[in-house]
Amino acid sequence: MFSQTGVAVSSRMERTSDLYHLRIESADPSSAAAHPPVELCKSITKWYTADGLLAEDIFLDDVQRLVEQYEDDSRKNR
User: Fold this and answer.
1) What CA–CA distance (Å, rounded) separates 53 from 41?
2) Is 46 among the domain residues?
3) 37 is a domain residue
4) Sheet containing 38-43: which strands, arranged edge to edge?
């Protein structure tokens, strides 16, 4: 499914915010095969322990859910 237009992944975080934005979209959004973008917006505090360590499993679960959402949305638009 990613091979039709390719996929673009972007992330951003404002300097004074704890919100992290991760976006997946078609590399060529104007293509007829393009799929709607999906975005995760979450406080980074949800991915760190009280000791300040990255809870990698929680972060990866959120990323996996975003990828699955992109795949599901892609299938719905066929």
Assistant:
1) 20
2) yes
3) yes
4) 7-12, 19-26, 38-43
CA angle 58–72–6, rounded 5-degree value: 90
pLDDT digits (tens, 9 = 90+) for 43-78: 999 999 999 999 999 999 999 999 999 988 766 665
Q: What domain range is 46 assigned to? A: 7-76
User: Is residue 30 domain-resident?
Assistant: yes
Q: Which residues, 6+ apart, have CB-to-CB distance to 22 below 8 Å?
A: 9, 10, 11, 39, 40, 63, 66
Residue 63 lies in a domain: yes
Token pair, residue 2, equals: 């990613």
Residue 1 pLDDT > 50: no
In the numeric block, the tokens 């091979």 are attached to 3
For 5-36, write each residue's pLDDT tens digit.
789 999 999 999 999 999 999 888 888 778 88
Counted domains in the chain: 1
